[in-house]
Structure formats: structure tokens, C-alpha cells
Amino acid sequence: MTRARATGARGGETPLARYNAKRDFSATAEPEGRVGRKRAKALAFIVQKHWASRLHYDFRLELDGVMLSWAVPKGPSYDPAVKHMAVRVEDHPVSYNRFEGEIPKGHYGAGKVIVWDRGTWTPAGVPRQGLEAGKLVFDLHGEKLAGRWELVRTGKPGDRQERWLLLKKRDAWARPESEYDVVTALPDSVVETPLGLVEEREPHGAVPAATPAGSDLSAAVKAAFPRTLEPQLATLATGVPAEGRWIVENKFDGYRLLVRLQAGKARLITRNGNDWTDRLTALAEELGRLGVARAWLDGEIVVLDEQGVPNFNRLQDAIDGPANRDILLYLFDLPFLGDRDLRRVPLESRRAALRELLQGHGGERVRFSEDLPAPPSQVLQAACRLGLEGVMLKRADSPYVGRRTDTWLKLKCQRRQEFVVVGFTDRTNAPQEVGALLLGYHDEGGRLRHAGAVGTGWSNAQGRELHERLVALEVPKPPVHAEAPPPSRRGGPARGRERWVRPEVVVEVAFGEWTPDGHIRHASFRGLRADKPARAIVREEGVPAAALPKAPKVGKAGKGAAAPAIKVSHPERVIDASTGLTKLDLVRYYESVAERMLPHLRRRPVAFVRAPQGIAGQLFFQKHAEAKFRGLTELDASLWPGHAPLLAVDTAEALVAAAQMNVVELHTWNSTARSIDKPDRVVFDLDPGEGVPWAQLQEAALLTRTMLEELGLRSWLKTSGGKGLHVVVPLAARATDERVKAFAHAVTDHMARTIPQRFVAKSGAANRVGRIFIDYLRNGHGQTTAAAFSARARPGLGVSMPVAWEQLGELKGGAQWTVQTARDHLSFESADPWADYWTTRQALPRWPGKG
């Protein structure tokens, strides 16, 4: 190996001599070290995430034409109480700031490198003096890091390993690590997914935002077109924020609707994931004429009254009635266009692109939600005078994230929210009509709480319809947590005998205020909500203006979306004694992989493995709603007659809430709720017997793949998170589960007959000593397999990881990635190895003698 010539020796060497001496620039893509010229612009800083022999973070500060560098094994922390070791290493060239890639094996620092953060830094004092004194204080202005920081030397200058500490100073940016762990929350490259400066995402100075004349989509990234999309939700605020640039829009009194455009056809999806295309055919046809090949659009459907004001009751009547063509769609966001993911593009540019897309459209029912160019407080006053519901405030520079966020705010003229109907009373002198609705909401533990009652706001006809619907749901006991007496016993509007119902109906209610014991006063019924599940209904608490804007929340769920923040009970509880991993670690893991994991979970029956006392304690296998998780979906009971309703995890909120409820593993059916008896995949679970070496399992996976290819079937590979491997074949959901299981059984039998020294067709540990059982039983009706990205309740908390077939030879075991390492592995992944899986639908070939 030839090395670049060093230009000096330690003590008298020139800058970057040590850097150049350690590298062979004919073999590595790293830039050769040259001292940069002095520049007038601000000094740069960069943090590179480097997976070499072990994962660490390289923290670099520009000074005198080079990058002063420290290796920080655990990365930065916003918690002033956390002091992470930082080892001073050789200075790097400024040109190294652009380096992302792989350093070849056998070379210094071999491994993968990404740019984890970048920006500028401002020294507090004279930096060279601070460096020599061993105390360097500075401010960072990055995409993830901000505020005042300090490097303190703990070793002696010139030590072979010069040890320092990196710590956060106490300021407005400081936060406990238990509340926010920046390396877990934001694990990815800022080159691939730019975030913009964190100080600009939390700006100072309040003026209404003006939408630019043109759209700047430079922050967009190329991405596969998603099948589903989580909508961004707004936080209720009690006042106008004093800081930030805000786009002001009308708050429409309607139903939220996402539009998926592909090949000139529109699918209309509610915020709860229901497909309403067939109910809104006129809108779908008009959207299909936009001339857009592929896009996701976000908006709200309304029906206007004679004064041009949205009327919620008219919308409900119109959806399934003759006035369906009166429904209008106001579009306000464009998270995806063509082959570009726009979710990291600032809102003002996304809206500009949406306006351009709709210009010249000429349709009657699809409209752009215009900005209201006035101070938010004035717009709110005007909206209330006109009888509107309120206004929306959206941060002009905010990204689009699929959760509730404080960069989108809703200000209401009157208090108003959804409630679950838990009971009703008959109307006096008209027993076939509802006299009052008894209301409830879910608390943080998922329990239903009394919320009071509403006794006005509906017509006689609506009262009869409500009565008929609720009688069909009647149950003998109240479904609410009986900590407070029901409202009719306390003089509220619900006078008369209470009749209790299953908590399935959701209504929207306007009211004056909350009482100290958690009931509403001066309530008025506004309508039924068919777009929101009962389990998602919680009490909305308005955020005071003084509390806005908030600091970023924990939980970046993959690239471009964030999972919801959630309160974790007993976060310190150890889940796995072998590693010391805690419940908080598990919650944060599922928070971080939510965006990648949800396509494997949505609308698919799921079973949980729960570990309330950790994986060494008793484990519980749960398929039905024995405990309530926030946001969890109960599927239609008719899907599995004779059983309690099956469960599905359709949102990031539900996934994180499941982890909070001690769920370690998530196992899914091979079919979705849409075609419960017709699987859309077949799984071959390669289960090694005692004494099977790992190389033999790798060989078995290749043999299985070859067998399937001869049958004309493409397959995808994932680790099991335990000892084995899963080979997964996507199918068109046409064959019955009996036939799919028979096919899998036939493949297993054939492999066992053809290569008996490797495979066995009978289950049971005694049958597979030294051999591999391809578990075809995973394909029976109601059977489940560990979902992609699921953790496993085994020492080490391995993770089922999708991989490319080309990676098979590099794998070292079925639990190669764990809750500790999986998300960091994904941040170095250059392409999704399963990207084509979602668009591959294959017919099941016939097998002689197996149907």
C-alpha cells in the first residue's frame, strides 16, 4: 500500500500531516488534506455519523483552515447533566465536510459515514486560547444542534488519546435526555433529508407569512410513491403565538381528506384511512382531470350555506344523499408530487407548488385554500363575526409530518371537539327520540371518562335517527370509568333514566367551558363524525400562546415523518437484563421506525407479545382488545365470526402506544382486512434445528429462493430477529388461505424429499436436529409471523430486519440487528431493499396434487 507523503512529524509537523499519513487516497474516496484558505464567512461545524469497528460520531469545528476533530462515541446530548467522552483525533480538511460514503475494508476508519449535522459555530472568546487551556465554549447553529456547548479537556495535552468531555450548557435549548434524545430522534443524514436550521424551525419575530410567487422545491428528495400517508394534525391553541412567521387560513367545518393521484385516477382517503372514493365520485372524477401523474394532496371537504359559510350538518346530509354534488374540496397542502417527497420542503413552497398545480384547472368543486394576509388576531376576530369555526395557523417554514404538531395550530371561536357517546336518555313525551347524549373521552391510560352531556342541537328527525342507532348498541352497564357520577345525577341536561351503549359513536359538540371535575357546560350538538374512530377521542387541551412555539419533540420516525410524543410510564423499567435496555429504549425504537414499519402493519390483523415484567417474566400473547391502546384499530367483528374483534396498528400513534403498554413483539396475518380469507403473501420461515451452522441456513435461504424462482415467483428476505430467516413472497390476494397453505406445504415437502440432508418436512425439535424445517404452518388462517422491524422478546432484543438478497452472505445471524442498533443501521442504508415488494403482485402457481 502506498501512502500520501506526510509533510512533517508530530511536534513540528504541518497541519493535516497526520490525516494524510493515515490514508491511501488511491483507494479511499476521502479528500486529500489541504489547508483551506481563510474565508470571510462564518466558521463551519459538522457532525459525521461513522460506523467503523463501532458506531461513533465525529464532531468537527473549523478553525485556521482545518477541522478540529473529536470522536464522540455516544454523540451529542441536549441534557446538561450528560457529559459524553470526546477523544481528540487528527485535524481534518474542510473539504471533508462534504464526505459521505464508505471507507474500504483494510483502511483507516473502514466503514460507512454520513453527515449527521452541519451548520456554523461561533466561539465564545478566543478559540485558540480556549483550545490550549482545555476549555472551549461555543454556540452551534445547525440543523439538529443549537445553543451553547462546551468541550473540556480531562487528559493531558499530547496524550496518546487526548480525552475531552462534550457537554451542553444550560440555556433555552437544554432538555433532559429522558425527554429528548437527539441522536435517537433524528438519526439520518441531513444531506439526504435536509431539515433546515433548527433555529429557523423555531424562529424569533412574529409576522404573517407571505407565500412566494414561485415554489422552491430544492429540499425535495426522490422517493418511491407511498401507498399510504399519515396526515399532519394541528394542536388546539388558546391564543395567537407571539413568535414565528405564520400562514393563516380558514378553519373549515368539514371532514379531512387525503387524495392519492396515480395514473389519472384519484383515491379519496379519510384521516382514519377509510376509502371514500365511491361515496364522492364527482370529486374523484374532477381530481382525475388535474393532469397529474402522481401526487398526494391534503384538504378538507365542506358544504357551504347560502352565506358561503361551511355547514357541518349539510355536509353530513350530502355525503350519502342527493346533495352529494354540493360537496367542495379545499386543498391546502402537497406532501408528494411525481417522484419527489415534498415533506421536508417548507410549507410556503409546498403551497406555492399546489397553487401552480391548480391554476387553470377550471373545475367547480376543487379549490385552493387561500392565505389570509392579515395578522392572525384580526383574522380570528373576523372569522368569529362571520360565524366560522375559527382559523388555522401554520408555520411558513414547517415540514409536513404525519402526527399532531405545534407548527400547525387551530384557534376556535367557540370550544368544540369530538366526544364518544357512552349513553343517552329518552326525550320526555317523545320516547322514540333522544333527550340527551351522555359523553365521554379517553384519558392517557385509555380509559373512558365522563365528559357530561348534550341535550340540544338536533332536529326531531335527527333525534329519532340517533335514538334508533343507539338503541341497537345498548348495553346493561356504563362503559365509562365510574370515578365520578354521571351527569344526570348532578343536574345536567341528561335528566331521566340513563341508557348505556357500546362506545362506538363519535359526535362533535360545541360548548362553553370545562368544569373543574371534567364535564362540559352549555353544550350544543354539531353532528356525527364518521371519519374518526372512538378510540382516538381524547380531551383536547388548548396550548397557551406563551407556550408556543415548542421545542422539537422526540421521535423522528424514519425519513421525513415523525411519530407522536407520548408519556411513558415507568420508563426506567428494564426490559432485557442482558443488555440493560429499558421500556423507554423500546418506545423510542418503535417511534423511530414507525414510518418504515407501518406499511407492514396497516389494516392487517396483528397479535402482540407483551412483557409487563420484562422478557424474563411472564409473556402474554394478545389478539383482541383486552386492554385499550391509544389509536389502536378494532377491525370489524364479522372478519372472524365467533371471536372478539381483531386488532390492527394503522398509525404511528398506535404503534408507540402499544410499546408504552409493554408490547415487545408484533405478529401479523398474511391477509388484510380487505380480503381476510385471501392472503397477499406467503411466508417461508426457515427454522434451524439444533446443530445447524449459520452458513447452512444461508445456503437454505438461497435454495428456497431458487426453488421459488423456478416457479416464477420473486421473493424477499428478512432476518427473523431470532435464529432464523424469513423468505416472503408477495401475492395477488386471489387464492384462499387453504390453497396458499397447501402450496407452502408442497414446497416444504419437495425441499425435504429433494435435499433430505438439509431440510425436514415435520415440525418438532427432535425431527430437525442438524436440519432445517421450513415452517409452512405460518400460512394457515389466523396464523401470524413476526412483522418486519418487530423486536423479539429474547435476550438482546433482536429485530426482524428486511435485507437485500445481496446482503445474505454478509449476515452473521438472524438477530444481527437489535433494538440498540437497528435504527442506526437504517440511517446508513442507501436504498430500501424491499422497495419493489409493494408493487409486486404474483399469481400463485398450481402445484400437482396440492390444488
TrEMBL record:
Class of the enzyme per the UniProt entry, highest EC level: ligase
Ranges of residues in domain ATP-dependent DNA ligase family profile: 329-447
Record-level Gene Ontology MF annotations: DNA ligase (ATP) activity
Ranges for region Disordered: 1-33, 477-497
Pfam families in UniProt: DNA_ligase_A_C, DNA_ligase_A_M, LigD_N, LigD_Prim-Pol
Biased composition (Basic and acidic residues): 21-33
Cofactor entry: Mn(2+)
Top-level lineage group: Bacteria
Name of the featured protein: DNA ligase (ATP)
